[in-house]
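I would love for you to help me understand the pair of lines that follows before we discuss the fold together.
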Amino acid sequence: MPSRLETARLTLRPWSDSDAEGHSALFAERGAGPLPVERSREIIAAQLAAAASTGIALLPVDRRDTGAFLGYVGRASLDEPEIAYELFRSAHGHGYATEAACAVLAAASTTGRGRVWATVRTWNAPSFRVLEKLGFERDHVSADDRGELVWLTRALPRARRSA
């Protein structure tokens, strides 16, 4: 998958050290408490190392017009891609998650894989709406120590071969 994608309103790009404060703030917005900026730098370094070795990554999402960091999208396993996204609450309701995820799905369709999956906690209605718009369907439900987790999948179109 490319390390940089652009849409009409967004840029998806590799992480940089300057993203540490935004990453830390996004983590804190989850309600899990503050994440030290140094820990965010460690997580970003791990993301960059994983992307370098596998070609698979979470990509920061920026608004093209302002350069504002909105969150991230991407992530995939080696065998079968998983789409994930997290945006600041202030970015919700503008279609950014759908737009960014659509770009990732388009890029994933060029990798030769047959489907993409996503997992969503049952309380996360906005994520269900995004995934529904993108053509995902419920596959199954599992549970862990944090509650129920809904697994959704979407078939990817096969890349066309030249004749």
Observations:
- Strands lie at 5-6, 10-12, 58-63, 69-74, 84-87, 115-121, 137-144, 147-155.
